[in-house]
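[job 4417] fold queue: 2 targets
>>> target A
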Amino acid sequence: MNKLLLIKNAELFQGKKYLDKKKNYFEGWYFKNINNQRGISFIPGINIDDISSKAFIQIIINDKSQNLKIHGNIKCSKSKNIKTNIFAPNIMGPFSYVPFMECNHAIISMQNTINGCINIK
């Protein structure tokens, strides 16, 4: 996939080139949702090492991350994206163009509308 496309579209999986090479690679996405004083975060990710590839989802409720049973359905809409330009295609600014950076970060949206229901046990 085109490197510039990945820089501009951080929500796309960035590590496709590592899937068959058995090199160490980690990629994760952090979805933080807040309503008044209550919050829940979802962190889906993938870890690739020389033995295997594993996907996971970590869930954090306010300040806790334990074995939780969650059932529900939520839908995000009306995403408010950050402003970008040629010098700052994402939150990393001009450093997003540096090919040997050990870690890259991106902000996809700063504000959404969320509809649905989640039951937590």
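>>> target B
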Amino acid sequence: MKRLLAAAAAVICLMAVSMTASAAELGEIKAKSAILTTEDGQVLFEQNADEVHPPASVTKIMTMLLTMEAIDSGKASLDDTVTASAHAAEMGGSQIYLKEGEQMTLDDMLKSIAVASANDAAVAVAEHLGGSEDAFVSMMNARAKELGCTGTEFVNPNGLDTDGEETKTTARDLALISAELLRHEKILEYTSIWMDTVRDGSFGLANTNKMLKLYDGMVGLKTGYTSTAGYCISAVAEKQGMRLIAVVLGEPDKDSRNSDITAMLNYGFANYSVAQILEEGQEPGSVPVEMGIQDTVRVQLADDSPLLLEKAAAEGLTREITLADSVQAPVQEGDVLGEVVLKNGDEEITRRQLTAAETIERKGISSIYRDLLGYLLMKQQPY
């Protein structure tokens, strides 16, 4: 199994190198740092992606991630009542003008963060979930490390410069965090909102991400701006069965931010396509089971997530399926029983494990005796 995983990882690394190398045709990107990835981490383009820069309000993707994780784990609820502290109410920049002691549901607070980039709501939610802003920031930094972020240090939940401190991160780290946030599909119900209200309809929200109207297929995620950070965004778009994440940091103005994101996404959608591991309707087969309560066990892909390939590589793919000749019972669901290899000509693209789709118990003594008795009786039958 380890050899299979190592081979697959090596192939994916080679694919990533060839993908980024071919991205030279994309043209000039004005951002200080940029990256284009799939949601499973394939890098299609990068430019200074590991340089450390302030992300401004793009910081809030981590605030939203911890919020969604708390909700999905049952530690919090969208119906929770969040009370604004004096500290939350004093936030400047983009805000919903919370008053000290004002209460809103976590649902409305999250909406205010995702749509209007509300700095005060971000602090209120951080205090609600973490007990204090400092404790929540520690949670943010711990989660970043868990995700493999190497250039990120959060100082608050909203991205504002405070007391000479500012959040630092990289385009690559933001793509990692964005991909993890996308695992919580409900967040797209918030980040795709164009206009909405809170406070029973008395306060309007307008999305800071104008790319929702400027780019077909845009579904989120988060913009940011400060005078030191410049214009930033982590943008997610869906087309042709693909979901791409484009991140830029340090853009000189809104127009260049929008044009760079458009160019990067257009490049991705124009040059890559989705390749399924098995052809539509293709069954990987089954493996005979010795001494099992069933004669065969069905197999399935351990990982059926599709690959994003350059269109030329995706054409003319062949699939080679190798299965074990047989397996001894008991068989546990998930046992490795073979593999499928995707090739383009003689070049191997990737390989995926085929595993048992069900558990097959070993026959008991009584079953073995009945089988033997049946066999003997059949042998005694006259011809």
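[job 4417] complete. Note on B: Residues 2-21 form the longest helix (20 residues).
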